[in-house]
Task: inverse folding
């Protein structure tokens, strides 16, 4: 290439600016911030939105979620019941509703939900006409970017049935006798102004409530329970008005047990949670008695065993076992959950356990503990002093039992280089015999050329009880003096 042409090309490359590839960052959605919430003008309302780049502001409320979020706002003209959901979204949404202003938002009771239907959320709440409600949609685990994905957000008005007769505290349904059963439909129920939020639920979880009142003629311990296809709550209070109620107890599952004093009125608040509503079955009854039960180990104790007792009792009223009292049936006793005891002699002992719950209910049970000290001993393994290869001789194992007739298996082993090899076994009954008399187990053994090559062989016997556990197994094994073997 000629030098003049090369110079021109270099100059052109220097003068022409380089064209570099550029990238543009995706912007967050328009309603990413509280101040730019999408205003919903009428219902029903549905919006599709990409929330992949949604962010989280420092002053966004964290009652329900703390991940990237978008905002919507709606001001109903009249009182209405509203449902909002994220059905059809392709990521794990978290939905909550607030009233107030930025930095001073309050969550709407019951309007906080994650994973109502798979990964999607749904809330239902009673809206007051003229009040602005702010919908915050966050995400738990996204599919790209900061999380999020394709959001489908819908809001609609629900038909509201009449409230139940005991919707308000002042209309609490009186419980005249136990057991008491009642089904209340919380679909039309509300939460009245000043109604307490019990200690076992978080702010915003309680969706609707109904009230009952119980005034016993005499002191009694009772258990309350509320059940439905959705999450429920039962709380009990004393007092005379919403303003002076004092919580006695609260449960979101199982039985709520409390002691009701004679002549005092106890108000029971039954609620549905997380925006769910529908029929709730409520029951109040005398608290069930605790069910006493225990176990012990070993389950076949002898007079040489220290028996470990363990309380297996339980309280269906969920108050708990406060104390245990034990009677071991031989004049000894103990307290606590897990005592130990050793019996001095064989026999059948009736062990009794009495339990008391923290609120004073009692229960008891008894079980028979059989103490039997089984023991057999090998007193002798008889083998010939000398034998020849090919000769068949008798090996005798003598067993003694001084306490009980026993069924015994005797296993016989012969010595080999490095240890012992199993030869055979016999099982037979061993009666109790006086004056140290024994029961004989007779084996036949033919001495081999290998025995002769070694020059001697020893026999080892092991005795095992078939139907019981030997309390003293140290004397259940014995080895006969070696037999000299010749060719």
Result:
């Amino acid at each position: 290439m000629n030098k003049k042409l090369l110079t021109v090309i270099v100059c052109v490359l220097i003068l022409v600016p380089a064209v570099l590839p550029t990238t543009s960052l995706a912007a967050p959605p328009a309603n990413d911030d509280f101040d730019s919430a999408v205003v919903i003008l009428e219902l029903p309302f549905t919006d599709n939105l990409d929330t992949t780049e949604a962010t989280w502001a420092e002053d966004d409320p964290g009652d329900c979620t703390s991940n990237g979020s978008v905002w919507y706002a709606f001001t109903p003209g009249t009182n209405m019941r509203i449902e909002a959901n994220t059905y059809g979204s392709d990521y794990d949404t978290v939905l909550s509703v607030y009233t107030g202003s930025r930095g001073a938002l309050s969550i709407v009771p019951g309007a906080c939900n994650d994973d109502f239907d798979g990964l999607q959320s749904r809330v239902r709440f009673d809206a007051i006409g003229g009040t602005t409600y702010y919908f915050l949609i966050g995400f738990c685990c996204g599919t790209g970017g900061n999380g999020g994905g394709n959001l489908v957000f819908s809001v609609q008005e629900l038909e509201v049935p009449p409230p139940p007769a005991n919707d308000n505290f002042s209309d609490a349904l009186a419980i005249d006798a136990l057991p008491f059963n009642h089904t209340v439909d919380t679909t039309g129920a509300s939460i009245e102004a000043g109604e307490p939020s019990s200690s076992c639920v978080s702010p915003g979880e309680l969706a609707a409530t109904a009230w009952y009142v119980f005034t016993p003629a005499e002191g009694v311990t009772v258990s309350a329970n509320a059940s439905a296809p959705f999450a429920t709550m039962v709380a009990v209070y004393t007092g005379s008005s919403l303003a002076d109620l004092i919580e006695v107890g609260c449960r979101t599952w199982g039985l709520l047990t409390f002691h009701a004093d004679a002549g005092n009125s106890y108000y029971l608040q039954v609620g549905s949670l997380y925006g769910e509503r529908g029929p709730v079955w409520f029951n109040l009854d005398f608290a069930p008695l605790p069910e006493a039960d225990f176990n012990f180990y070993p389950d076949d104790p002898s007079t040489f065993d220290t028996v470990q007792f363990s309380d297996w009792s339980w309280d269906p009223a969920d108050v708990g076992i406060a104390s245990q009292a034990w009677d071991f049936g031989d004049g000894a006793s103990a307290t606590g959950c897990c005592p130990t005891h050793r019996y001095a002699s064989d026999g059948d002992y009736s062990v009794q356990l009495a339990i008391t719950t923290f609120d004073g209910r009692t229960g008891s049970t008894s079980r028979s503990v059989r103490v039997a000290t089984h023991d057999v001993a090998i007193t002798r393994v008889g083998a010939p002093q000398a034998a020849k290869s090919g000769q068949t001789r008798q090996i005798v194992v003598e067993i003694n039992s001084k306490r009980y007739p026993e069924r015994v298996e005797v296993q016989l082993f012969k010595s080999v280089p490095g240890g012992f090899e199993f030869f055979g076994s016999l099982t037979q009954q061993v009666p109790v015999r006086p004056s140290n008399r024994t029961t004989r187990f007779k084996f036949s053994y033919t001495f081999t050329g290998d025995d002769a090559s070694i020059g001697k062989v020893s026999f080892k016997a092991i005795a095992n009880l078939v139907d019981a556990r030997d309390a003293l197994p140290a004397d259940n094994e014995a080895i006969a003096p070696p037999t000299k073997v010749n060719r």
About this structure: The chain has four domains: 34-158, 169-286, 294-371, 376-486. Residues 194 and 318 are 30 Å apart (CA to CA).
